[in-house]
Amino acid sequence: MAAKTKFSEYRGWGFGYLALLAGLGLLVLAALGAAWFMEHNGHYVTGMTNQIVWGMPHVFAVFLIVAASGALNVASIGSVFGKTVYKPLSRLSGLLAVALMVGGLAVLVLDLGRPDRLIVAMTTYNFKSIFAWNIYLYTGFFAIVGVYLWVQMERRMNRYATAAGWFAFLWRLILTTGTGSIFGFLVAREAYDAALMAPLFIAMSFSFGLAAFLLVLMFACAGTGRPLGDRILKRMGTLLAVFVAAVLYFTAVQHLTNLYAAEHVGVERFILLEGGVYTTVFWLGQVLLGGLVPLAILLLPGIAGSRTGIALASVLVILGGIAQVYVIIVGGQAYPLVLFPGMEESSSFMDGAPATYAPSLYEIGLGLGGVAFALLMVAVAVKVLAFLPETVADSAVDPHHTDSSAAEPIAAAA
Amino acid sequence: MSGFDFDRRRFLSAATAAAGVVLAPGVTLYGIGAAARELDEPASADIRWGLLIDVNQCTEDCDACVTACNEENGVTGHGRPATDAQWIRKVRVRDPKTGAEKHLPVMCQHCAEPPCVDVCPTGASFKRADGIVLVDKHICIGCRYCMLACPYKARSFIHENLSDQKPYAPRGKGTVESCTMCVHRVDAGGTPACVEACGEDGNGAMLFGDLNDPGSEISRRIATYATHQIRGDLGVDPGVRYQNL
Amino acid sequence: MRALVLLLAVLAIPAAAAAQDGRGFGPVIPKGKGEQCVAETDYMRRFHMTELTHQRDETMQRGVRTKRFSLNECVTCHATTDSAGRPVSINAPGQFCASCHEYAAVTIDCFQCHAAKPGDGGRAGLPSPFPMTAAANPETVQ
Question: Which ipTM score applies to this complex?
Answer without folding.
Answer: 0.92
